[in-house]
Amino acid sequence: MASLQSLVAEWLRFDQNETTKLEIQRLWDDSNTTELEQRMRTRIEFGTAGLRGRMAAGWSCMNDLIVIQASQGLCQYVLKNVANAASRGVVIGHDHRYNSERWAELTAAVFVHAGFTTYLHRGLVHTPMVPFSVQALKASCGIMITASHNPKDDNGYKVYWENAVQIIGPHDKGISASIKSNLEPQTWMTEQLHSQCLDRTQEMKDAYFSNLSSLNRSRPLNGQTEVKFVNTSMHGVSDLFVSRAFQSFGFLPFIPVTEQQQPDPEFPTVVFPNPEEKGALDLALRTADVQGAGYVLSQDPDSDRFCAAEKGRNGKWLVFTGDQLGTLFAAQTLEQYKVSEQPIDKLAMVASTVSSKMIEAMAEQEGFKFVECLTGFKFIGNTALNLVEQGYDVPFGYEEAIGYMFGSRIRDKDGVAATVSFAELVVSLVNQGKTVQSYLEELYQRYGYFQTSNSYFVCKDPSTIDKIFERLRSYHSDSKPAYPQEIAGMTITSVVDLTTGYDSTNPPTYQPSLPLSSGHMIQFRAKQENGTKVVLTTRTSGTEPKIKYYIEANGMDPTAVQDVLVKVVEELGTTWMEAEKHHLGRP
């Protein structure tokens, strides 16, 4: 194991940023070994999400030196694994967070130094612009500097492969190894950088909006209703993009939440700038009440996620869940596909395995193909591309964490596309005398009631998490497999363990169809005699000290569905997780 002194010495030798260099020097001079151990001992890990963490000096944090080393490792890996990588080039974009612009320029400097054609987007862009540009320019890879909806002290480095989809294995491990083989900084930013990079920003923006217009189905109607939309960009980059999209689709201008309209790296009105977080939409809802608006639209700060709310006829607001929005978009996609008179059996949709099974039920009844994959758009995007190779049309995919993919050009989540697609759905329903809630009720009556309860337990001890999951795998010592056989009085009908590689529904090999998960992940399905069903997935988080769970109950009786959902949530915590015994925290 390297000594702390050697780790500090290497940092001081490499770092040319006087601020972060001095930060580590002062900690060393003050003999603050506790803080230095936290910052220097463990290197921030490059994974399928790239890099994301707190901005500070040290090997475990996000800073200039880490960004340069990551870029050098990525650059060398791409050169070895992508044909004509340097001439095809790299696309780089950034959001508005502290250091984002600088780190985009440092990244560009590394690739320019290595002889790459380097497309550096000027100004702020939303995250979908990078994969769109990679695809449009046929680049060898793309990098977006953003921490999405993380707190203000964080930033990140997101990587897209030549297929314009976020990287998956084995590229993550390959890039990580390449970073560790290219630690010596070869270059820092130069004043002449921008003259050495290509600026195709405006061209790519125009092409993006031209492609977005292909989703526009009812432009003549969009400006002829009195529907009022309030939009919040959560202090992020989306306001200009959504404004242009609204204009392109023929909508009247939305009402902005002015306090959150402009990019602000301080995120002054929200602790967590994530529309999913409790209270994050409060200001937008109050604005809508004052303005007499019936709908609230929201994007996260880098504008790849989307959330919406509708004011009911009783005056109360309903904030739609990620799964409800996914269902609405899937139904919208299906209806548009039917109108096109294309063969339904060539239509395919994709969702992550922890998302609602309602699209699965729709597919069974309507005759299109549904495929589920592991959590994350890196898997959704690659699954969509695989289906296209098989001859399917894949116009939609989603994950329950309010991420939605539309069309064939961007195989990633896009909050701007989701925003105008939802607004167009609203206008269409209003013209039919319906609301989004009433339409959702129609879908429930047609395909069954699907209700979800998604949350997590906090556990900061990895060994305790391991014990909890091992106990689930050895719940019944007298039977094999030894997983639990019932929950809340329901019989468990199938178990898929993506950690050990077991699928009870696939004899004789019992091998799961999905790839294995890097952490703990088990999915149970259960059924009552009255036909009510439950899908329960529990997994560890790759970035947080959490055991996440996703529970969905479905059936034709909404009361029975709600009752069983409550019971399953209770038994999961008290009996399966033993939350009290293990001192598990709850949100």
From TrEMBL:
One of its GO terms (molecular function) is phosphopentomutase activity. The keyword Transport does not apply. This is Phosphoglucomutase. It holds the Pfam family PGM_PMM_III. It is found in: Cytoplasm. Residues 44-183, 208-310, 321-447 form the Alpha-D-phosphohexomutase alpha/beta/alpha domain. The keyword Magnesium applies. CDD domains: PGM2. Keywords: Carbohydrate metabolism, Cytoplasm, Glucose metabolism, Isomerase, Magnesium, Metal-binding, Phosphoprotein. Belongs to the phosphohexose mutase family. One of its GO terms (biological process) is purine ribonucleoside salvage. GO terms for cellular component: cytoplasm; nucleus. InterPro entries: A-D-PHexomutase_a/b/a-I, A-D-PHexomutase_a/b/a-I/II/III, A-D-PHexomutase_a/b/a-II, A-D-PHexomutase_a/b/a-III, A-D-PHexomutase_C_sf, A-D-PHexomutase_CS. Its cofactor is Mg(2+). PROSITE patterns: PGM_PMM. Coiled coil: none annotated.
